[in-house]
Amino acid sequence: MVDGPTGLWLVGARGSVATTAVSGLLALRAGLVEAVGCVTERPELAGVALPAWSDLAVGGHDVAQGPLEKRAELLAEGGVLPHHLLECVRAGLREVDGEIRTADYGGVQADVVRRLAADITAFRERRGLARVVVVDVSSTEPPVPPLPEHADLAALERALADPDRRVLPPSSLAACAALTAGCPFVAFTPSTGIALPALDELARREGLPYAGRDGKTGETLLRAVLAPMFTARALRVRSWAGTNLLGGGDGATLEDPAHAESKLKSKANGLAALLGGDVTAPLHIDNVPDLGETKTAWDHVSFEGFLGARMSLQLTWTGLDSALAAPLVLDLTRLVAAAHAAGESGALGALAFFFKDPLGTDEHRFAEQTRELHAWARGLA
Amino acid sequence: MVDGPTGLWLVGARGSVATTAVSGLLALRAGLVEAVGCVTERPELAGVALPAWSDLAVGGHDVAQGPLEKRAELLAEGGVLPHHLLECVRAGLREVDGEIRTADYGGVQADVVRRLAADITAFRERRGLARVVVVDVSSTEPPVPPLPEHADLAALERALADPDRRVLPPSSLAACAALTAGCPFVAFTPSTGIALPALDELARREGLPYAGRDGKTGETLLRAVLAPMFTARALRVRSWAGTNLLGGGDGATLEDPAHAESKLKSKANGLAALLGGDVTAPLHIDNVPDLGETKTAWDHVSFEGFLGARMSLQLTWTGLDSALAAPLVLDLTRLVAAAHAAGESGALGALAFFFKDPLGTDEHRFAEQTRELHAWARGLA
Amino acid sequence: MVDGPTGLWLVGARGSVATTAVSGLLALRAGLVEAVGCVTERPELAGVALPAWSDLAVGGHDVAQGPLEKRAELLAEGGVLPHHLLECVRAGLREVDGEIRTADYGGVQADVVRRLAADITAFRERRGLARVVVVDVSSTEPPVPPLPEHADLAALERALADPDRRVLPPSSLAACAALTAGCPFVAFTPSTGIALPALDELARREGLPYAGRDGKTGETLLRAVLAPMFTARALRVRSWAGTNLLGGGDGATLEDPAHAESKLKSKANGLAALLGGDVTAPLHIDNVPDLGETKTAWDHVSFEGFLGARMSLQLTWTGLDSALAAPLVLDLTRLVAAAHAAGESGALGALAFFFKDPLGTDEHRFAEQTRELHAWARGLA
Amino acid sequence: MVDGPTGLWLVGARGSVATTAVSGLLALRAGLVEAVGCVTERPELAGVALPAWSDLAVGGHDVAQGPLEKRAELLAEGGVLPHHLLECVRAGLREVDGEIRTADYGGVQADVVRRLAADITAFRERRGLARVVVVDVSSTEPPVPPLPEHADLAALERALADPDRRVLPPSSLAACAALTAGCPFVAFTPSTGIALPALDELARREGLPYAGRDGKTGETLLRAVLAPMFTARALRVRSWAGTNLLGGGDGATLEDPAHAESKLKSKANGLAALLGGDVTAPLHIDNVPDLGETKTAWDHVSFEGFLGARMSLQLTWTGLDSALAAPLVLDLTRLVAAAHAAGESGALGALAFFFKDPLGTDEHRFAEQTRELHAWARGLA
After folding, report:
1. How far is CA C122 from CA C117, C132, C181, in A?
2. Could C320 and D304 be called an inter-chain contact, meaning their C-beta atoms sit closer than 8 Å?
3. Nearest CB to D305: which of C37, C229, C365?
4. Which is deepest, B178, B204, C118, D361, by most CB within 10 Å?
5. How would DSSP label each residue in D183-234?
């Protein structure tokens, strides 16, 4: 049972996903739109006690400045936000703007964690919130090389205090700050974030649940649905090639091969888990600025059937990534808040439904993930 | 537990699907190929007592003449049968040829049923079979107008004996003959077949199981997999348009709008059951002779997400229909034989996994169908 | 040399294509947009004397009421008109509204022609125009059964005067009115329009040029470009299947098989002319209302190469039909005005570049049409 | 006028393209197949004096061993050669095998050239040929760094004689050997080959024609056809993304980024020449071994129309590369032989029709290339 108003603290609060989520929350609260894309509004989750739209307060961190309204205007031009809605949510966006703090990841890392945590704590107290769910929707980071400290909380805490060391990337500092402030955490990006044994240890020690990672919104969603079909039908997938074209800030970030590596790994893990390792699976992410908010993915699946017959399936997915991600951010906030209220801690494997590279479970099959989500959520009630 | 050799009696035994199934069975028995596409060889069904490949004997009916070898040669040219395999199965095909009887649907219908049943009974006795599963893989018939006799077994039996009436189409005469001969029946086509209340009554009276209808091999399989994804994610499908291009005998048959109507109905039912009735869903089947055995389907799905965002998914499926259907025919023979041995009777809803328009259940979601199949099959053990 | 201000009289002036053309003309005149999609702005036509954007005055007929502004708002929601542009053209749209007359096709047909012609003549005189080009962009009509009067101008004129006969469909009455008013005519739809020998006779008698028919904006454009490639490479196209999904008013009109027939004929003619008659070419137009202004076409081309190799090409075209058609309407107005000024009369075959089913020529190959257009236009100078 | 029997000397004579070309030539000569895919059999070239199929004798170089028959069997399994044809051409393949020499590119480069040239000369004399056209269909090489000797024939000849230097890659040694033997040369691959100023100088000095480079068989062919359509219609292409999936030896070679670079450059040049340089054009070539001889390319074109409307075109090309390339190899042999007979020398720009990266011209538009080819060929007569 969720007992009181709930905070949503967005890391990357000025980005496209965050702005879409906030605009949508404002529109839902005002009864201007239906909750299309919101899984927590499905009949299967009807009996679960979740925070109402009107019970959610939003704040966040970002390294960038620039008002949410400006971003929302760009999203309207990009077809993500309807123009008529934009006018209705301007006031609400300005209010959320007042709850966004500039993130500064410089200096001794233990101090960074303290500063970030203090911002979250102040938000919780100022707004009188029962709890705050921290959701990372910031830009994808490059993978980080493993360090011994990543696997040992005590060693990590010593290293964070060492002014000469930088042992955690920003996404993990954000996760650490969330836990330090007593808040559950959601890793919506493929960045390292909370996916380190030492941070898992911290979450369990603090009795905090977390979920991740990398929101499953398009191509990987299709793969999680279709790969089990081939398996169930005893058809042998021989290759699964993919090309992703995207513009926007995401496209620009992923143009850098170092940043793309995290995303590509996260995608490849899923396919190997679903079909085994001997499937040829080239995968590309291309920055195509003119596509703006639209993301187009083409997948070509070659498979073998009875008597060696060679067949194929092609998919072209044309999605608006922010529109796909934003309702999931709201869903995760509600569900993780409920998990926190119910006293769960550690990785919430039952939320694999939402993620490309799920933490706390090895289940990648979408239908199984769906059943697990429903069963788990009903169990919270 | 399946207790002894099992017969497979194919209605339409000289067609592409039958010839591929027989050739494949011969190749499997000789250890020349792996059982790719055979669901009954999946680990999930490992403990189920099913007839071995070497325990299956094949016979059948067809209205056409012409040796299986000739058809197999055409299938080799069409890419369905590998050339090297063709040589290995020639002798076996000739042997099965000797067990195919010409079907004659003329004359008083009760006599037709008796003659067809006698052929099946003779096959069972001649080959010393514990049971025979009759599988209809013949050409799609047009839908038949409903008659009161279709819903009342006693009335149907009187009408069949009336020399002036023709109350059943050939596919239903075949189903009736199977039941009369004490054999389970599988409707692999969308024809009327066993899908009449009077024949259901007959099956139950005789304690015989049956399954159907219309093998789910391509576009509808994808729909059964993908439609639940949209539902689970609370995305609103607005339209799902489909175009099927196919050649071969199937293409020629379905060029006739009357015959296509059965197939189109069977496909449309599934989508409406999965997504509700208010989805625009134009659907076409075109005869494109040069495509031969290859069937290409294009689906365009338009859906709405958060804040009214408009997105789309396109699918192009390029399959060899006979290669997709044939292993399912073998699977169904084994599973229905096991159901018969276990004493089941009536429509086997647990086999919905295999069909576009499942009898005995309303479940169209593929993942649920898969779980039900596995659970049911393990229950037989 | 075009000598003075030119009128554009739109038949169907309140529809999507017309509204987009007018909005675009206003934006071009104000220097708010670049002339993307306007062929007459290409360097190849640089020296041709054409009316300037500021020299074009617009009026028209429509059977519907309802201000252009409302239609423009719908087009903005449908992604055809940018929102920021809408505000800039409102005043201009209202002004054009004042020049649109209600078309009434009832009564004795000779009277209808006189009334329509009078509207056009009044517009020319009121605005002091050197000439008026009449362009039919109204909804597609069903094909009309041939009558002897269609081939004989004198007989046609008698029949038009007969109060008991209705020998011409509205599109042909519009063409007849244009010619009667001394105006060149452009048939941008597949309707019968001017494509009758008797009207050709009338145009030549009056010394008026005309062009048509059925604007080539999407799938047929691709076919006119790609079919010659297969021919040039000696590759044998075996089938060319097409499916068109469209919403909007056009989708609704073409849902009626009678109306679709005109469009399908126009499309099929082109393919047969390009590739010969023995290509299997199923073609569908489906009304999918949720697609709105977006039109999606899928083409599947199967072709044979060296040694019988079977290969394929698939195309998916996603276009905004009004945005593709509107600049061509402006181009045709300019070019036909120039032809009129240059004294040309009869069907302008050199404008085949713009049409699915070109009048006055048998040339369907796009590259040849392009060369002919350029040569002809330069010849006008 | 071609005066006597003509030789075709294939560099890479044991590869897929060469084997398909030779098998096809044998089948054409025997009247077993129609000349589908052979441009020189089009009516437009009917009057041109070209060597007959029966006048072509084939030999060649390869670094690999292994009989053509084995390769032909693999091509039959891969769907390139029909099985029934394979039997008919076995004897002919064995005969050509006897005319293939092992290429050895080791040692002093001047000696390599002499040895290779001697093989060609011996073939011409042994078979009594009026001329031999040397066609490079070997595997793609990486690009070579430019050297001053590449631009100066005298310096190049000195460097070739220097035992310590390796100034030319194998493809250029092959070109040099052809010219040294007095033979015209065709560069069917993107390798450096004859595309060096010093070799152009040599060709002109010897009065020999040559043509290249990189046979245009699939994706680039489509681009050369479609890009001019967008230009002619004043539509602004914003991005043109491409993904190529291929198996076979070609896939394996191009998996190495160094080798792929030549191919990618050759493809990118074409698009930039057609559309200008500011089009975003990511391009990938992926090795997908299970696809075998089949090559699948997906292109996504995003373009802007009137009033900024955003639209797209997607293409999926599924081709058998060897079946597309082989007839062009035969066409080029005939046409270059005729050019030689007519006394032409230097780069044959009129053959741009056949190439991705044409030498001797800047024309990339396919329709223009087609017209130039026809005009040039008729001029030879």
Report:
1. 9, 11, 10
2. no
3. C37
4. B178
5. --EEE-SSSSTT-SHHHHHHHHHHT-EEEESSB--SHHHHHHHHHHHHHHTT
Domains of chain B: 6-215+323-380 (3.40.50.720), 219-320 (3.30.360.10)
Contacts of D76 in chain B (CB under 8 A): 83
CA distance C82 to chain A (A): 8
- Tokens matching residue D222: 């489509």
**CA atoms lying within 13 Å on the CB side of residue B350:** 18
Q: Residue C25: what pLDDT? A: 98
Structure tokens at B149: 């006799």
Residues of chain C with pLDDT under 50: none
To the nearest whole number, what is the mean pLDDT of chain D? 94
Any idea what DSSP says for residue B55? Answer: G
Residue B311 sits at the chain D interface (C-beta within 8 Å): no
Identity at C112, one-letter amino acid code: V
Confidence of residue D53 (pLDDT cuts 50, 70, 90): very high
For all residues of chain C together, what is the average pLDDT? 94
Which residue in chain C has the smallest CA separation from A80? C79
Whether residue A262 is predicted with pLDDT greater than 90 in this model: the reply is no
| Type of residue found at A247 | G
At C40-82, the pLDDT tens digits run 999 999 989 999 999 999 999 999 999 999 999 999 988 899 9
C-alpha distances in angstroms, B270 versus B39, B136, B139, B224, C290?
A: 22, 21, 21, 8, 21
Contact at CB, C228 and D367, closer than 8 angstroms: yes
* Residues with Cβ within 8 Å of residue B137, at least 6 apart in sequence: B10, B11, B12, B13, B15, B17, B18, B21, B188, B189, B325, B329
Comparing CB atoms, the residue among C39, C307, C367 nearest residue D234 is C39
Beta strands C310-320 and A6-11: pairing type? Answer: unpaired
pLDDT at A26 over 80: yes
C25 vs C89: CA distance, rounded Å: 9
Binding partners of B (≥3 Cβ pairs within 8 A): A, C, D
D289 touches chain A (CB under 8 A): yes
Q: Which of B72, B59, B67 is nearest to B27 (CA)?
A: B72
Positive or negative CA dihedral for C179, C182, C187, C188? negative
Q: Return the closest-CA partner of residue D274 out of D218, D214, D228.
A: D228
* Contact between chains at D79 and B79 (C-beta distance less than 8 A): yes
| Number of helical (H) and strand (E) elements in chain D, helices listed first | 12, 11
Q: How confident is the model at residue D271 (pLDDT cuts 50, 70, 90)?
A: confident
Contact D239 A291 (CB under 8 A): yes
ipTM of the complex: 0.95
Split at pLDDT 50, 70, 90, the class of A1 is low
Kindly determine whether residue B83 and residue D83, on different chains, have CB atoms separated by under 8 Å: yes
Give me the residues of A, 331-370, that contact B with CB < 8 A.
Answer: 353, 365-368, 370
Measure D212 CA to nearest chain B CA, in Å. Answer: 35
DSSP class of residue C355?
Answer: B
Residue of chain A whose alpha carbon sits nearest to that of D245? A241
CB B9 within 8 A of CB B178: yes
Low-confidence ranges of chain B (pLDDT < 70): 1-3, 381
Q: Which of B37, B229, B317 is facing A366, going by the closest CB pair?
A: B229
Model-level pTM? 0.95
Supply the pLDDT for residue C256: 77
Q: Confidence class of residue A258 from pLDDT cuts 50, 70 and 90?
A: confident
Give the residue carrying structure tokens 């979920």: A211
pLDDT band at residue A2 using 50, 70 and 90 as cut-offs: low
Give the pLDDT mean for A81-87.
92
